[in-house]
Amino acid sequence: MSGVQSVRGRVDAELTEKIIGVHAVSKGTYGAPRIHADLATPACGTAVNASPG
């Protein structure tokens, strides 16, 4: 492996960091539905649908 991360890999890593951040801010009380709702807000700027178009 050359160590170069794909665009999808970088996007996934950024999304993972956002998920971890939301979970940490909620002190571990937010589950997947609430985290999904938070990430879907326009203020977050995260595209929830990451499937190839």
Task: Name a few traits of the molecule.
53 residues; mainly alpha; 2 helices
Summarize the structure in words.
Helix content is 53%, strand content 0%. Helix 1 packs across helix 2 (32-40). The chain is mostly helical and 53 residues long. It has helices at 7-25, 32-40. It has a domain at 7-40.
Describe how the helices and strands are arranged.
Layout: H1 7-25, H2 32-40
How much of the residues is beta strand, in percent? under 5%
Q: Describe the global form.
A: elongated
Low-confidence stretches: none
Distance between the termini: 27 Å
State the total count of DSSP E strands.
0
Provide the structure class. Answer: mainly alpha
**What do the pLDDT scores average to?**
80
Number of helices: 2
Following the backbone from N to C, one meets helices and strands in this order, namely HH
Evaluate the radius of gyration: 13 Å
Helix content: 40-55%
Q: Main β-sheet, in a few words? A: none
Give the gist of this structure.
By secondary structure, this protein is mostly helical. It contains two helices and no strands.
